[in-house]
Amino acid sequence: MNEPMLKKMEAAPINSAEFFTRSRARLNFDVPPGLVDPEIIPKTGDAGNDYMLEIVAREQPVRPAAVLIPVVDHREPTVLLTQRSPHLSSHAGQISFPGGKIDTTDASPLDAALREAEEEVGLKREFIEPIGYLDLYGTAFGFRILPTVARVKPGFKLTINEGEVVDAFEVPLAFLMNPENHQIHAKEFRGMERSYYAMPFAERYIWGATAGILRVLYERIYLA
């Protein structure tokens, strides 16, 4: 969360070809050392969040994770999101990206993201063109999330694994990349206020890590 989030900004014009061109120019597949190094704390630019992540790093083991940001290449592009099953131990019932913890058998964070997308919603790898990693994102559960931005060809068919997710749906990229839809909420963490993003869309409440990662995507692609 950098200073620009506090300013009123114009909506980013969304063109599918331009979005992917800008993404390819700004992203790569270099794995940040903070993914596994507890001494390197992902910075958010928010004092409350940075304080929380420092405490989490001292109290919990680092939990490397990977998610896929699947941008579907429609004429008006969309982002494919999921709703997690209500019985899961972390982030139960929340709106999320396809993804999960990185297993020792995964060749890379990218491989983990692709595997999880296929396991959770049946999104086949032949429809996915990975573009690059976004910034490392830390959570209060000790996860270090490395998102992979990817172009997804339309025409795929999903198969929902209800043990992990209960739904999958698409949200217009134009909505998610419009800073006017980036609400800033706050709550207390051990005596210090920490802020978080929320992007309500129709009956869907997109917040927490998912909204935070989408905000990082906006900043990297349109403000960098």
UniProtKB/TrEMBL annotation:
Molecular function terms, GO-annotated: coenzyme A diphosphatase activity; metal ion binding
Which residue ranges traverse the bilayer? none
Classification via InterPro entries: CoAse, NUDIX_hydrolase-like_dom_sf, NUDIX_hydrolase_dom
Organism, as annotated: Bradyrhizobium valentinum
Instruction: List the Pfam families hit by this protein, alphabetically.
Output: NUDIX
Q: Where is the Nudix hydrolase domain?
A: 61-197
Q: Which cofactor does it need?
A: Mn(2+); Mg(2+)
Which named protein is this?
Answer: NUDIX hydrolase
This protein's UniProt keywords: Hydrolase, Magnesium, Manganese, Metal-binding
Task: Provide the leader sequence positions.
Answer: none
Record's keyword annotation contains Glycoprotein: no
**Is Metal-binding given among the entry's keywords?**
yes
Which superkingdom does the taxonomy of this entry point to? Bacteria
